[in-house]
Amino acid sequence: MGILEFLKDVLSEPAILMGLMAMVGLIALKSPLHKVLTGTLGPILGYLMLAAGAGVISSNLEPLSKMIEVGFKIKGVVPNNEAITSVAQDLLGVETMTILIFGLIFNLLIARFTRYKYVFLTGHHSFFMACLLSAVLGAVGFSGWQMILVGGFFLGAWSSISPAITQKFTLKVTDGDEVAMGHFGSLGYFVAGAIGQAVGKGSASTEDIKVPEKWSFLRNTTISTALTMVVFYLVAAIAAGPEFVATLSNGKSPFLYAILCGLQFAVGVAIVYAGVRMILADLIPAFQGIATKVIPNAVPAVDCAVFFPYAPTAVILGFVSSFIGGLLGMFILGYAGSVLIIPGLVPHFFCGATAGVYGNAMGGRRGAIIGAFVNGLGLAFLPALLLPVLGSLGFSNTTFGDIDFGVIGIVLGKVGEWMGAVGIYGLVAILLIVLILPTIIRPSKIAINNGEMDVD
Questions:
Q1: Could you tell me the residue range of the domain that residue 52 belongs to?
Q2: pTM, two decimal places
Q3: What angle do CA 338, 343, 345 make, to 5 degrees?
Q4: Confidence of residue 69 (pLDDT cuts 50, 70, 90)
């Protein structure tokens, strides 16, 4: 149990995972010791900086959620990956840890021997998915080694397939940088990119918005983010009323508290951007060692926030559009008599912003707005459909937030419910075909969907 706990902690910590991968790559390149040291520490420190920024963002979104709930009198379920994971650990701790370890092993084997050469480095998302898989497979009758092997395979397979699904759009987002999307909102980002492609012909990029000289300060991402979020917080604070806001602000003036929260949110975004620059500066060169020596042509799949600096304006536009989609989805669910899914600001910020970046890359402003809006609808409806699947294990008051969790959980849960273990093994067989077939039909040393050079 002690070793399992240690391995689980290491594998669910993206900073350490990135550092270890960079170290392996640098050693494979026979870099001198001082370069191995600095090249290993760079991604670790960069990710810790990114995580610190994300922590600032999340901690400042929490009071905003409470003010919106009270101010607009909304009651329901708020999707939260961290909350449901902590609940599930009491029931399925060992299974989740073991699925996580097997998932990483399967991911590396798939990257080595198939054309899905994507190494998934976002450890906390792997941990969340391992938790979802243990819960859903347990609910349909799996247990012990059967659950661990099947869950580990699903985790490893989706960790390899999901970056490939979005990769053609990711190359457009990053202008050809050798990174992939390693975040389980990938189906939402793919849909946002596809919508951008469909509706965005002739639409200028969000980053090309012409700003008059007197408003030129808005081109500073940190300042424009701060002003946008201050407005959000003030509206929510006015709706909630000073008496309620005072319970959150520890005696500080309610409106000053709202303004400071908005400003601190912008600081969190700035820290995320600084961390991303540090990660990419060291991880991509070091990863060339893995891509040439260990897993030929491997591509690192990294957290969604890594893509924010490529289109900072689309980040804010995507967040707002996704949140509006989430609100509309909540009202539709309420009208239909279903459980209310209150828009969780953390998934709407991180997933909505990323959907905006993808929509913008493929379809400019129209793509960013419509793509992120549709993503917001998905973040409302999918958690509502997932709740009954998880409810059998007693997770009735919370649910997973991001798109892939909803789709994977619903598919596995419904197939298991209708067809039992036979249906689940049928899905395993389908995934094996998806993984193996491209290698047989169109052999290539280059990762599937990774660039125009996808030929022999």
A1: 1-441
A2: 0.82
A3: 160
A4: confident
